[in-house]
Write a structure and sequence with these properties.
The complex is a heterodimer of chains A (291) and B (21). Chain A has 291 residues and is mostly helical. Helices cover 62% and strands 4% of the residues of chain A. Chain A is globular and about 65 Å long. In chain A, 38% of the residues are buried. Chain B is mainly α. Helices cover 38% and strands 0% of the residues of chain B. The longest helix of chain B has 8 residues. Classes of the chains: A mainly alpha (291), B mainly alpha (21). Chains A and B meet through helix 4, helix 5 and helix 11 of A and helix 1 of B.
Chain lengths: 291, 21
Amino acid sequence: PMEADHKILVKQIHEAYMKNFNMNKAKARLILTGKTSTPQPLIIHDMETFQLAERTLAVHMVSGDYAESDGGVGDRQVFPAVACEELEQREAEARLFHCCQSTSVETVTELTEFAKAVPGFQSLDLNDQVTLLKYGVYEALFTLLASCMNKDGLLVARGGGFITREFLKSLRRPFGDMMEPKFQFATRFNALELDDSDLALFVAAIICCGDRPGLVDVSLVEQLQESIVQALRLHLLANHPDDTFLFPRLLQKLADLRELVTEHAQLVQEIKTNEDTSLHPLLQEIYRDMY
Amino acid sequence: LKEKHKILHQLLQNSTSPVDL
């Protein structure tokens, strides 16, 4: 009976993942390897191609600017018109930063819907659901991001664009420091060769984590976490019979992800303090008093 | 927690996209 239970859970979580995420690893790999009938993504490798992408992929590269205050959801600032080339470059970097934010907001929304579909999640105290999302979404986001990355770049705009690693690295500090650690993580993580069914369970395990600060009912979250982690362990044994150490290796990645999120939160804080840019209210909520 | 995480609460209770807010 236990085996049957875990198979049902695996199926439910995999289905929730396939239903709620616009991009998945199978889709991303088809695009990245050119094995798809859809047009090849637009390669973004400099400011010129970035601006071309902004015009042609406008629908999925929304670069809104967000008000700083909590009450200002949806308020827009208008950048002053500038002629100076350096300022134009700075504006483009800020717009790129906002594109990243829009993608993050979209993924957080998808992750919330995914979490709600994980059996047991919605039975938790509402405060605990908030806590689990607050601390889990960025770890989950960087896990999903790895699916869209190869050693040379990252798929963006729902597969319509491919932004090169070198271009991202060439941006002015602190923007240029933002993505490199994610590429390094992705290279190591992608070497595990997980598929979407494995990733679905891993992302569910990230979100349903019993040691997040401030949980009201730790034992209930731990019970949920235990059932997901057991399902993940059994699923990996069945799905990757030749790789018996995959489960412990995957669990080690949780520590890497936590470190990646801490570094990322510090960079975002630095950008918020020193740059003339703003943060989406949802992301403000997540980062506030995080670590 | 609810006061500090209004949008997360809203997302948990319905599926309004924060992009559209």
